[in-house]
Specification:
Layout: H1 30-41, H2 44-49, E1 52-61, E2 64-73, E3 77-83, E4 88-93, E5 98-101, E6 107-110, H3 113-126, E7 138-148, E8 151-160, E9 166-172, E10 178-184, E11 189-200, E12 203-214, E13 218-229, E14 248-250, E15 256-260, E16 262-264, E17 267-274, E18 277-283, E19 291-293, H4 294-299, E20 305-311, E21 316-324, E22 327-329, E23 332-334, E24 337-342, H5 344-349, E25 357-359, H6 361-364, E26 368-372, E27 377-381, E28 393-396, E29 399-400, E30 403-410, E31 414-420, E32 427-429, H7 431-436, E33 444-451, E34 454-462, E35 465-468, E36 471-474, E37 477-481, E38 495-497, H8 499-502, E39 505-510, E40 515-520, E41 536-539, E42 545-549, H9 555-558, E43 566-570, E44 573-574, H10 581-587, E45 595-602, E46 605-612
Parallel strand pairs: 18-25, 19-24, 31-38, 32-37
Antiparallel strand pairs: 1-2, 1-13, 2-3, 3-4, 4-5, 5-6, 7-8, 8-9, 9-10, 10-11, 11-12, 12-13, 14-23, 15-27, 16-17, 17-18, 17-22, 19-25, 20-21, 21-24, 22-23, 26-27, 26-39, 28-40, 29-30, 30-31, 30-35, 32-38, 33-34, 34-37, 35-36, 39-40, 41-42, 42-43, 43-44, 43-45, 45-46
């Protein structure tokens, strides 16, 4: 399951300065337009004289209301505290790196390459470098006119040579105040409209801002209630908290080692006990928060609060929040935590499993975790006393949206950063990378991907190799989506690495130092059986074994099976007599040439077909 991590970005009115340009009658020169904007908001001298500020106000995000406080010092220093009642979040920049403290008190230093590039852009912007006509880093261009809320606006575009982000500034052609900005990154857009301009020490400040983030369509509203200019701020305020949260304890010694997990269809499951109810939860490094099923939360008497949009594997999903009471698993006991709540059960039921939650970042980030796939064992170590003494390869793995990012190469030429997603059964290229390299032209099999947010169309192709940390796995199957939506629309990583790759290894996941250690596992050279039917089977709402997808170029499609058919019997045995749908899917991984007699309901009529297994690719 792909991460749906979210964060808050408080939008204070941008300041655009240009020290040497004067307005002309013909306003098509972007520097002329910006110069008139500078004059309109108070003039260069006053703007440059403001080197620090403090703001506070009210904040509405989706259905949640709260408050925020922001401290800023030029250049680079920043701290924002958000209190939405349902949860809080504090973030900042100490001049060396970004950091965030989440709702459960966990501090994360943000140091991935793309974040560091944006920090540099921000630093140069605060020094007004982007308005230098001879700048090596920034380019301004005039993009024409547009009406925004009945105001005729000049459009000035700011691009840079550091990354692909751009900003469009809509400036009122009469008042020369900023009406709107559109900040575009490769994966998101933020549209902000400014109003309620007030004079603060001779500078006009927008006290009200309305924004929407696309493609999630997440809305946010800010109303300033206080603005203080040029105050003294203790530099220590911009540093992250010195002590990290400690919301768990080991119940037997200093670590919890060799805890069995269930490896079912390339996913990891572990038993979790909450108020005496022991249920199966999925382990997922791709989940930016831990998640409980909404119905299970109600059964436990937990209060569901607030609502945000999150990013699922298919489309966006509606997320609520709750406080998870003390919970435990073998060897570890946790105190209460803020977690997200979505309909987990309905997702896993289609796969034939009863799962009531997802252990994501809020659980995993407390430890250094060893995953031994071949022996189906997990070990959890305290970061304070862990020392690695093995011979594995250590990879830098910066966290991006609470998910590890590592370099890997396919076929010796498709290289880049990949998300490490232990909640994904397979490897997947993201849509932009697949489109750029025209993977649609490769021999491939149609599939329907499933996850939080529903289904999505994809294809599966066989590649020659995938190389990770110097280890080479041959003939990997890798999916790629056919639509630019959901979690796979991202372009800043080229794809997701999942358990079909990682099951060859022993992994150490080090959240504290943002690194991964990779060793060959006992199954490194093993070839794992794969589906040879082309059937994607799910459990329907009325508990029938239903065909989700059966592409025409697969044995199932050639036999005449189509999506929507209901499987009734296999070799004259009623499917109700099989242990589960998982058992049935395993049957279709037998050797090529194996033949089954399948009884189905096809377009409302009983039908019997012969299905002979064969390699799909």
């Amino acid at each position: 399951m792909k991460s749906y991590f979210f964060s808050f970005c408080l939008l204070i009115i941008p300041v655009f300065l240009n020290p040497g340009i004067f307005a002309h009658d013909n306003l098509t020169n972007p520097y002329d337009i910006m110069n008139d904007y500078i004059k309109a908001v108070g003039g260069l001298e006053k703007l440059k004289a403001e080197t620090s500020s403090y703001t506070e106000g009210t904040l509405t995000v989706a259905s949640m209301e709260g408050t925020f406080k922001n401290w800023k010092k030029i250049p680079q220093l920043n701290r924002t505290e958000v209190d939405l009642k349902v949860f809080t979040q504090t973030s900042g920049d100490n001049g060396r790196f970004n950091w965030v403290q989440d709702a459960n008190g966990k501090v994360q230093v943000i140091k991935d390459e793309n974040t560091m590039k944006r920090r540099e852009i921000n630093r140069l912007s605060e020094l007004y470098e982007y308005l230098n006509p001879d700048s090596r880093y920034f380019r301004l261009s005039f993009e024409g006119h547009e009406k925004i809320n009945d105001s005729d606006c000049y459009i000035v575009k700011i691009a840079n040579t550091i990354n692909d982000d751009i900003t469009l500034n809509y400036i009122n052609s009469t008042s020369f105040l900023l009406v709107k900005t559109i900040n575009k990154s490769p994966d998101n857009e933020n549209h902000t409209v400014y109003s309620d301009f007030r004079d603060i020490n001779g500078i006009k400040v927008a006290f009200h801002q309305e924004s929407v983030t696309l493609p999630l369509e997440q809305k946010q509203s800010i109303q300033l209630t206080k603005y203080i200019s040029n105050l003294e701020i203790d530099p220590a305020l911009f540093e992250p908290p010195g002590e990290d949260v400690k919301d768990y304890e080991f119940t037997d010694g200093e670590n919890a080692e060799n805890i069995p997990f269930m490896f079912i269809e390339n996913h990891l499951y572990i038993m979790v006990n909450i108020r005496g109810k022991e249920r199966m939860w999925c382990l997922d490094t791709g989940a930016g928060m831990s998640v409980i099923d909404t119905e299970f939360a109600r059964e436990l008497g937990l209060k569901l609060e607030g609502e945000l949009k999150g990013q699922g594997a298919g489309q966006h999903i509606d997320v609520t929040f709750t406080t998870l009471p003390e919970y435990s698993l073998k060897g570890i006991r946790f105190s209460e935590q803020k977690v997200a709540a979505i309909e987990v059960r309905s997702i896993f039921k289609k796969w034939g499993l009863e799962v009531d939650g997802i252990l994501g970042y809020d659980f995993l980030s407390r430890f250094i975790i060893k995953v031994d796939y071949a022996n189906e064992l997990l070990s959890f170590y305290s970061p304070d006393n862990f020392k690695y003494t093995g011979f594995g390869v250590v990879l830098d793995a910066p966290l991006v949206g609470n998910t590890f990012s590592v370099p890997a190469t396919v076929d010796g030429k498709y290289s880049g950063q990949w998300s490490v997603d232990l909640g994904a059964g397979s490897n997947s290229f993201h849509y932009p990378f697949a489109e750029k390299h025209e993977f649609i032209k490769l021999p491939s099999i149609e599939r329907l991907g499933m996850g939080a947010g529903g289904t999505f169309q994809e294809r599966m192709a066989k590649f020659k190799t995938i190389e990770l940390a110097g280890f080479v796995v041959r003939e990997p199957l890798i999916d790629f989506p056919l639509e630019k939506k959901g979690a796979f629309r991202r372009s800043e990583e080229i794809g997701n690495l999942g358990n079909s790759l990682f099951r060859h290894f022993i992994l150490y996941l080090d959240y504290k130092d943002q690194r991964m250690i990779i060793e060959k596992g006992a199954d490194f050279d093993r070839g794992f059986p794969t589906d040879k039917s082309g059937l994607q089977l799910v459990v329907s709402d009325n508990d029938e074994i239903t065909v989700l997808c059966a592409p025409k170029n697969t044995p199932a499609g050639k036999a005449g099976i189509i999506a929507g058919d209901v499987v009734k019997t296999i070799n004259d045995i009623d499917v109700k007599n099989f242990k589960s749908i998982i058992t049935i899917r395993e049957m279709f991984k037998e050797k090529a040439g194996t033949t089954y007699k399948i009884g189905i309901m096809h377009e409302g009529q009983p039908k019997e077909i012969k299905l002979t297994l064969n390699e799909l690719l």
